[in-house]
Amino acid sequence: MQGHDGVADPVDPRLAVDQTFQFGRFWYYRDDDRWEWSDQLARLHGYESAESVVPTSDLLLRHKHPDDKDRVADLIDRVRRAGEPFSSQHRIIDTRGAVIPVIVIADVLQHPDGRRQGTFGFYVAASHSGTAAGGSAVVPSGRAHMDIDEMVRRRSTIERVKGALMLVYRLDAQQAFDLLVWRSQESNTKLYSLAAAIESRFVDVDMPSRARTSLDRVVLSAHEHVRRDRSEHA
Fold it and tell me: Which residues cross the membrane (predicted)?
């Protein structure tokens, strides 16, 4: 893997990004009720290119898994009415009938005058390559002279961000690492720099009260699971 400063980044080959890890961008313009797909997103849905398909809200829903369709329909309706930012995990069905789990992350597309023009974002097809070596990411060292303390610090940052992605998007460790690496490559930003920037904005993430309550419950009851496991293996 080549670092963005032109210096090779040594990465454990077991943790290389899954080559089947697919992604694609989309844009939605509220005034025209118009969707646009990148070529990658069209191919993810089974089409040859963005020019070979005209994406519409109805087409989007036809590609959703039946068990996810109602939930996604509500989401699309909110996007069309208010241009809200959102994230979603659901399954799509491509033109060949293959079921593909995806993560969709979107933000507000603003007009130069400040009003909400629509929504833009990207799909990421969840990888099923499995987690190697417990899923721990080996952080690229960047330059040969980087000292051990710096490597450990960078690794810790990436691991914390990876953990946040695993929690929020319900990914395994390898999928979370793949997502970070893809964003690093797609945005031409070094992996550690991107992870540090994401971590610095954790305070900006609005955690719904229901999610906090669920995590509270886990934190307060986790010891019971530890005791139960000990008794079962005694």
Answer: none
Q: Are residues 27 and 117 in the same domain?
A: yes
Contacts 24+ apart (CB under 8 A), 187-196: 188/4, 189/4, 190/3, 190/4, 190/5, 190/142, 191/9, 191/139, 191/140, 191/158, 192/139, 192/140, 192/142, 192/154, 192/157, 192/158, 195/157, 195/158, 195/160, 195/161, 195/162, 196/157
Domain that holds residue 156: 131-209
Looking at 96, 125, 154, which one is the last position of a domain?
A: 125
Q: pLDDT tens, 89-143? A: 889 999 999 999 888 888 888 777 877 888 888 888 865 433 332 333 333 334 3
Nearest to 175 by CA among 184, 185, 165, 183: 165
